Amino acid sequence: QSVLTQPPSASGTPGQRVTISCSGSSSNIGSNYVYWYQQLPGTAPKLLIYSNNQRPSGVPDRFSGSKSGTSASLAISGLRSEDEADYYCAAWDDSLSGLVVFGGGTKLTVL
Amino acid sequence: QLQLQESGPGLVKPSETLSLTCTVSGGSISSSSYYWGWIRQPPGKGLEWIGSIYYSGSTYYNPSLKSRVTISVDTSKNQFSLKLSSVTAADTAVYYCARHGNIVVVPAAIFDYWGQGTLVTVSS
After folding, report:
1. Contacts for A64-67: CB closer than 8 Å, 24+ residues apart
2. I want to staple B50 with a disulfide (CB 3.0 to 4.6 A). Which of A87, B38, B80, B118 is the partner?
3. A104 with B46: CB under 8 angstroms?
């Protein structure tokens, strides 16, 4: 059971816009930045979005992040076949002495 | 370009200690701007943060693993290491090392450089 809740799967056709949600609580998303990671099959995760809505250099602007209260979302517009991957949200959690928490991951299928 | 590379045994017996090392190249592990972390991923499952260390030796651990985990750093070799004791089959996973933002400055879940990961299987 992950601390952050994501839908296990999502899908879309090429060119579509899809969103992936991430739900948390006041001790994590509600009080800290949200990060998103993309994991292509057989590879290490890659930082996709940082500080809720910022893109690292090299990440296409088709990817965008947002946060409201204790929830966050990742949106992918102009869906492409190469976007098929697992997506994870993450945040710092202030409970106990502090820790990093991840969502359970969402497998995105491009139909 | 910063690179991280995990190394260590791919097979560990139950009840023994898992030991991995991450070698950092292309940058200094002694940077004041970063912690250095370990994350694992059981086969077919999601990511779990294990813990992170600063070059001074300051550590943060996942409370669920804290009693079994030790992370250490060797700045002379630009390496940091993970030890996980009393392993069981549930510890079978791909273990990643990654560069972690400075938790003290901004508590955050930012890992911007990752190693390729190494599969550790716990089995007799």
Report:
1. A65/A34, A65/A36, A67/A29, A67/A33, A67/A34
2. B38
3. yes
Hey, what amino acid is at A43? Answer: T
pLDDT digits (tens, 9 = 90+) for A7-59: 999 999 999 999 999 999 999 999 999 999 999 999 999 999 999 999 999 99
Chain B nearest C-alpha distance from A106 (Å): 9
Q: Chain B closest CA to A77's CA: distance in Å?
A: 23
pLDDT value for A96: 85
Give B-chain residues touching A99 at CB under 8 angstroms: 49, 60-63
Among candidates A85, A84, A86, A87, which has minimal Cα distance to A110?
A: A84
- Helix (H), strand (E), coil (C) string for chain B: CCEEEEECCCEECCCCCEEEEEEEECCCCCCCCEEEEEEEECCCCCCEEEEEECCCCCEEECCCCCCCEEEEEECCCCEEEEEECCCCHHHCEEEEEEEEECCCCCCCCCEEEECCCEEEEECC
Query: Parallel, antiparallel, or unpaired for β B59-61 and B79-84?
Result: unpaired
| Torsion over CA: A42, A63, B39, B75 (sign) | positive
Cβ distance B107 to A92 less than 8 Å, yes or no, reads: yes
Place of tokens 């716990």: B122
Residue B70, token pair as written in the block: 């030790």
Nearest alpha-carbon partner for A91 in B50, B102, B4, B107: B107
Give me the amino acid identity at B104.
Answer: V
**Residue A82: strand, helix, or coil:** helix
